[in-house]
Amino acid sequence: MTKSELIAQLAAENPHLRQPDIELIVATIFDEITAALARGDRVELRGFGAFSAKKREARTGRNPRTGAAVPVAGKAVPYFKPGKELRERVNGGEPQPTGRPARAKVEA
């Protein structure tokens, strides 16, 4: 799903909101996640997952064409760890509610 598809889906599910407002909401959420990662913070969305930035140390790489050694600078790379509920839904299981025991179904 692309960002524009996400906006279109949200607009279809929320006809009381204007599309420019939805675009602003989506852009603001992404901008805030990006800014937090740039500061070195972790962003956790309960039931979905956590975004963080992992550090990669400087290393010596190889030019694939010539085989010559090339220094590669250290950097931070974005990392996403899915939450338990997201993993269960993707794998076809129903997520268990967290924080309270599941209630038994009563058939009439």
UniProtKB/TrEMBL annotation:
<comment type="subunit">
    <text>Heterodimer of an alpha and a beta chain.</text>
</comment>
<keyword id="KW-0804">Transcription</keyword>
<dbReference type="GO" id="GO:0006417">
    <property type="term" value="P:regulation of translation"/>
</dbReference>
<feature type="region of interest" description="Disordered">
    <location>
        <begin position="83"/>
        <end position="108"/>
    </location>
</feature>
<keyword id="KW-0810">Translation regulation</keyword>
<dbReference type="GO" id="GO:0006310">
    <property type="term" value="P:DNA recombination"/>
</dbReference>
<dbReference type="GO" id="GO:0005829">
    <property type="term" value="C:cytosol"/>
</dbReference>
<comment type="similarity">
    <text>Belongs to the bacterial histone-like protein family.</text>
</comment>
<dbReference type="InterPro" id="IPR000119">
    <property type="entry name" value="Hist_DNA-bd"/>
</dbReference>
<keyword id="KW-0238">DNA-binding</keyword>
<keyword id="KW-0805">Transcription regulation</keyword>
<dbReference type="Pfam" id="PF00216">
    <property type="entry name" value="Bac_DNA_binding"/>
</dbReference>
<dbReference type="InterPro" id="IPR005685">
    <property type="entry name" value="IHF_beta"/>
</dbReference>
<comment type="function">
    <text>This protein is one of the two subunits of integration host factor, a specific DNA-binding protein that functions in genetic recombination as well as in transcriptional and translational control.</text>
</comment>
<dbReference type="GO" id="GO:0003677">
    <property type="term" value="F:DNA binding"/>
</dbReference>
<keyword id="KW-0233">DNA recombination</keyword>
<dbReference type="GO" id="GO:0030527">
    <property type="term" value="F:structural constituent of chromatin"/>
</dbReference>
<dbReference type="GO" id="GO:0006355">
    <property type="term" value="P:regulation of DNA-templated transcription"/>
</dbReference>
<protein>
    <recommendedName>
        <fullName>Integration host factor subunit beta</fullName>
    </recommendedName>
</protein>
<dbReference type="GO" id="GO:0005694">
    <property type="term" value="C:chromosome"/>
</dbReference>
<dbReference type="InterPro" id="IPR010992">
    <property type="entry name" value="IHF-like_DNA-bd_dom_sf"/>
</dbReference>
<dbReference type="InterPro" id="IPR020816">
    <property type="entry name" value="Histone-like_DNA-bd_CS"/>
</dbReference>
